[in-house]
Amino acid sequence: MISRRHTSERSCRKLYDPAVRVRPTDLTARAKIRRAALELFARDGYDRVAMRSIAARAGVSPSLVVHHFGTKARLRDAVDDAVVSEFHEALGTVDLSGGTDDVVGRISAAITSVIADDPPTWGYLKRVLTDDGATGQRCFDVLVDLVARGLAELRDDGLLRPDTDIMWSAYAVVFVILGPTVHHGRLVHSLGSDPFEPSAIRARSAANAELIHSGIFAGGRRGPSRGADGGGRS
User: Fold this and answer.
1) Contact criterion met (CB below 8 Å) for 100 and 213
2) How far is Cα 161 from Cα 91, in angstroms, rounded to an integer?
3) How do the domains of the chain map onto residue ranges?
4) CATH says 4-20+82-222 is which class?
5) C-alpha distances in Å from residue 12, one per residue of 71, 89, 105, 171, 207
């Protein structure tokens, strides 16, 4: 018999199988160009980066950039796919077995690690998520969808309350986890330190886990029920 842990991990891998997978051995010219574009888009913004600058940073010719991606817009699409695939990979390794506190902590740590471990990815996300353009909307929608599918699986496994509103719970999780990225400057000013320092990440992850656990996980502490005009479900 397959254990629940193995079943959950297998299901999670299927759920989060990325369309464009980023492999550790992906050291091709195409990957180098994509990485260079990510770094420059994060630092300078998409509109301020020229194809020649991307080629120079990647150590290739401009014609090779055009050969692989055609246009800067298509290159940005490839960068988006690579960033999204990092979240796919991180969430795909989350172990859904054990206590609910542990599961929440793993989910939060998986998403936070993508941001904290790779400054260019963090910088790129910060730019696109505060932009009203199509790129930011696409990244936001994909992240919400990833979390929603993960929550649905947790509900099916009995780790969430049966009446959990998956859509709004997914939005809440994304808001809580990505808040420090979107409001990084304000947090630095308020805290007097970087919210992505290891100690801050640990403290924030613990607080996130407690907040999410109390709000949506089975056995959590439930507050008073609210009516239809209360703006949400209990």
Assistant:
1) yes
2) 21
3) 4-20+82-222
4) mainly alpha
5) 34, 10, 16, 20, 25
